[in-house]
Amino acid sequence: MEYILSKKESGCIFCDYATTDESAFAEAHILVANEEAYVVLNRYPFAAGHLLVVPTRHEAELENLTDREHDALFRLTRDAASRLKKAVSAQGVNVGLNLGKAAGAGIGEHLHVHVVPRWEGDTNFMPVVADVRVMPQHLAATFHHLSPFFADIPGRRAKASSPVGDFPGS
């Protein structure tokens, strides 16, 4: 609801993330960034730990990525999925793209890959009956829990901090 009711800023939030100074990575929930792509927590997640892997360059179409951008995006997606699975003891992971508004992209003008941890029985009556999602952990706590799992991926990241609390389901 926060997103639906909020005033929409002009410009591209993903491009704003791409220009974020490393000193503000923790506040922006950017786990790791390299020259071609970065990993950030989804501010309006489907599940706790929902990540987005985003190419640095503003581009809506997958086919318009350079080979280097494409390779970097999907290497980082692979790395994010494997670390997320380990970090939260996920039994599975959904990885996907919604290319364009018609395909369900909330932000269709800048492509991004969703990486969502899953557990058996994690979909309960709330999203099915009431179209409501319940988040068991604040984004800052999720960020601090996941950060150490991304420490070995080459790129820029927030300065080290200690984990905050346990991750639900781990």
Short description, anyone?
This protein has 170 residues and is of the alpha+beta class.
How would you describe this protein?
The protein has a single domain, classed as HIT family, subunit A, CATH 3.30.428.10. It contains six helices and five strands; from the N terminus they run αααβββαββαα. The protein has helices spanning 2-5, 13-18, 25-28, 67-88, 125-130, 139-146, and strands at residues 30-33, 37-41, 51-55, 92-97, 113-118. It has a five-stranded antiparallel sheet. β1 (30-33) and β2 (37-41) form a beta hairpin. The longest helix has 22 residues, at 67-88. Residues 128-132 have low confidence and may be disordered.
Can you lay out the helices and strands and say which pair or pack?
Blueprint lengths: L1 H4 L7 H6 L6 H4 L1 E4 L3 E5 L9 E5 L11 H22 L3 E6 L15 E6 L6 H6 L8 H8 L24
Antiparallel strand pairs: 1-2, 2-3, 3-5, 4-5
Which key features would you list for this structure?
170 residues, alpha+beta, 5-stranded antiparallel β-sheet, globular
Helix-strand makeup class: alpha+beta
Q: In CATH, what is the homologous superfamily?
A: HIT-like
> What is the domain total for the residues?
1
Q: Give the ordered list of helices and strands.
A: HHHEEEHEEHH
C-alpha Rg (nearest Å): 16 Å
Q: Residue-averaged pLDDT, rounded?
A: 83
State the shape.
Answer: globular
State the strand order across the main sheet. Answer: 1-2-3-5-4
Could you say what the CATH architecture is?
2-Layer Sandwich
> How many strands in all?
5
Question: Into which percentage range does the β-strand content fall?
Answer: 15-25%
Distance from first to last alpha carbon? 28 Å
Percentage of helical residues? 25-40%
What name does CATH use for the topology?
Answer: HIT family, subunit A
Helical stretch tally: 6
The main sheet comes to: 5 strands, antiparallel
- Give the C-level CATH assignment: Alpha Beta
pLDDT below 50 for ≥5 consecutive residues: which ranges? 128-132
